[in-house]
Amino acid sequence: RRDGTSGIRLCATDKLALSEAEGRLKIMKKLFLAIYIIVALVMILAASGFFYIYHQIETPLAVKGQDQQVIIEKGLSIEQIAAKLESERLIRSAFYFGVYVYFEGVDNLQAGDYTLNPSMNIPEIAAVLSGGLVKRNEARVTIPEGFTIKQIDERLAQVGLIEPGELLNFDAGPFLPPPPESTDGLHLLVLEEEGYLFPDTYIFDKNSSVKDIWQKMYDNFNRKLTPEMMMEILNQKRSLPDIVILASVVQQEAPSIEEMPRIAGVFYNRLVINMPLQSDATVNYVTGKGMRQATTEDTKIDSPYNTYKYRGLPPGPICNPGLDAIKAAVWPEASDYYYFLHPLDAPTVFSKTEAEHRANKAKWLK
């Protein structure tokens, strides 16, 4: 309504409508502000994520590193190749390698024997693998788990990398951890190398010296020992040489990977009560025989490696154990078993008492 003194006046209905409009406007402003903040946060997070992933892809694992030989077998998927590179400690994460090759369209990774370095970033490694840049003046050799130094020496000589006996005569003592203390002062030369050359497939330059070959195998051994394993060894108040010694015995005694932790547990149980290990594998190491069960005559041989005659661990490893045997020595299976035997056509049979063990021998070793 309009009158002469007060100008335009709003009725109650008009005032309510205006108030509602102002309320809606405030709500819309708040909504737009919230959307703006959310979009800004999403963009910031996306940018941060992008730069983080970019950093992971472009930054190598190490500023400096040693060349490593990596074998990419035929038929491996990109995920399997990425996992292998991570396990070999050449990249930080298989995930970022997969992200890179996916978005860059690198789908032609080739099988082959490669020389890579942890100082290479993911694009550089992918370029090598996609380009098939394989060194040709090299020899490829596989060292099985449980090989002794003598067997490794023979295998390397067979492919022409060394002369027979070169590895056996190489003095590796200065590069190895100190041997475990021995109450009788026994310390054999074989301890200086046996046990620390990691079984694996290697690619060696044909002009490599015996020192180069030894160093590559020993470095591989150290790479396989994760910080978690080393911390567990320290927590158990054990020494690395003792772990390697027991792992070597487990390697030769266990017919399967699955049984390794339990067999390691049996040996630890015996060590705790100062019971002889009575390992046929340690006797075979002395005699050079490959028998599953040592003869009674062999168990009487006077050698510190004869764990029928001498209590405790032997003075050194009896072979070069693989990763599964080492893990079993670090994380043995807890049990009440003190005996085991290997039937010819059945899994290992474990026993808690000597009487039970004798009964199992009568049953299975007829």
What does this structure look like?
- With 366 residues, the protein is mostly helical.
- The chain has helices at residues 12-58, 78-87, 94-103, 122-131, 149-158, 210-224, 227-235, 240-253, 260-272, 280-287, 323-330, 354-364, and strands at residues 2-3, 7-8, 68-72, 112-116, 138-142, 201-205, 339-341, 349-351.
- The strands form 4 sheets. The chain has a two-stranded antiparallel sheet with strand order 1-2.
- β1 (2-3) and β2 (7-8) form a beta hairpin.
- It starts with a strand and ends with a helix.
- Residues 1-6 and 180-191 have low confidence and may be disordered.
- GO terms for molecular function: lyase activity.
- One of its GO terms (biological process) is cell wall organization.
Strand content: 5-15%
Structural class: mainly alpha
Average pLDDT, rounded to a whole number, is 85
What is the strand arrangement across the widest sheet? Answer: 1-2
Number of strands: 8
Largest sheet composition: 2 strands, antiparallel
* Cα separation of the termini: 120 Å
Unreliable segments of 5+ consecutive residues: 1-6, 180-191
Counting DSSP H or I runs of 4 or more residues, the number of helices is 12
Number of domains: 4
Q: Into which percent range does the helicity of residues fall? A: 40-55%
Radius of gyration (CA) equals: 33 Å
What sort of overall outline do the alpha carbons produce when their principal axes are compared?
A: elongated
Task: Encode the helix/strand succession as letters.
Answer: EEHEHHEHEHEHHHHHHEEH
